[in-house]
């Protein structure tokens, strides 16, 4: 099967009224899922390329959903309590579907590999979170670690990739994970609930003066002060420049890869949303 329909298949597990009412499923790992399907589709395991892509995406969604669970102590409103409970339950539910899908297909070894990757992700997260709590993280370190965390599950399939294509797989996975991360960070910049511990936060904390750092250390950051700092330090332009650079590196990788005829159209389809984002943002800046 050549068509890409993994996000539609995943809706069977994510589109529940209770989940939609009280919480929000994180962004689907579309670029990584599609990239995995393309590369596995070029191996002896191609009959399972859609299954692997779906199962891995569900694990990723499960972990991202658990990451939304707040650790703030104190009383909460009923809506907040329900949302917290649903984040726990939704994450657990999505994890169970991954086991079920792979077990039903007899892919026990892959269950072990993905489970090991989950453990690795959690260990890396704990190290990163401890450094963030102590305000010891630079913006570059935060971005680098976030990209690595996004890659980890999908790297479980590296041994399966054809030997001659492994360098391209690793490079494209890193670049598309970077694109996904930057796109998410651009969205987080406008969401008051996600100000803390975003790339924008660390960039401004790193470059800000003492007064601005004091503001960023507050439990609840003043939205107006935040907007002023975002404009002052041109953070959206910084992120967009990084996105352009990553898109250009992807284009060069595909251009330089000899003999890569089958799959080029699929790679272009994965890249297209980021090309559109960059072009649209460039036009918007020029009009301003």
Automatic annotation (TrEMBL):
Alphabetical list of Gene3D superfamilies matching this protein: 1.20.120.1450
InterPro entries: HEPPP_synth_su1
Superkingdom per UniProt: Bacteria
One Pfam family in the UniProt entry: HEPPP_synt_1
Annotated protein name in UniProt: Heptaprenyl diphosphate synthase
